[in-house]
Specification:
Elements (H helix, E strand, L loop, with lengths): L1 H11 L10 H6 L18 H20 L9 H11 L18 H10 L9 H4 L4 E4 L8 E5 L8 E9 L2 E4 L8 E4 L8 E4 L15 H11 L13 H13 L10 H12 L1
Antiparallel strand pairs: 1-6, 2-3, 3-4, 4-5
Helix pairs in contact: 4-5
Amino acid sequence: MTQVAVVKAQRAAKLSGDGVVGPETWAVLGLSGTPACRAVPPHELSRHAKAVRAVAREAVALAAVLVRRPGSTKNSLALAALHFAERQKGKPYQWGGVGPKGYDCSGLVMKAYAKAGITIPRVANDQYGAGEPVPLSSARAGDLVFYATDVTNPRSIHHVAIYLGHGRVLDAPYTGAFVGVRPLWTDGLLPVAVRPAAQLHLPLRPGATGPSVALLQRMLNRHGASMHVDGDYGPRTTVAVNAWKKHHHLKRDGIVRRAMWLSLVQLTAR
């Protein structure tokens, strides 16, 4: 419809009617006095401005692919985070809010993934490093998408949203708005999504090491395990896992799978 209107205006002004809005068409529309309507010759663009335009074009192209893809996920941790975030719909944006009455964008994301037993930073531009980076066109439900004032500099990230699939996001956008589902917009969008669920490698077995084991140990300690949190899945951690499994009528094999992880998280959060 916009193209038809542009061509009609061009032909009325005896222009080519090609549907391309250049300086002549802006002049016909009476808008050529605003800076945004000035056609900037390529030689006037700075190196940084060219980089910004290149990244922005890339993000738009990748986002267009998402609309045609379901982007669903079977990852139970991502689904747990999504389930929590969905239940916050309708709550107001609150600057610095981490719930339960209101949220800001990063507060909603942090709390959603905490419900899946995944600890991520509080601030949006720190959350950009809280998982596996994937091309925006490969985003799946539960992944995070980011917006920046300078798309060439992730430290300028000012907003984060949870991707839902089919080109939709769930977020807490700004003061006066509410947590809800919206189409993915591309102004300031980065071409990379982040997958927080990828940072937790399940199942966990004896001999494993790392942050996932340390988080497991902290949760077990909240249930009375009283062990040193060192990120090393050794004999004491194995004993604590099997004791927890015995109490919950599970097979005592020392392996922490997603079902145990989610139930342990839910009990810890009570």
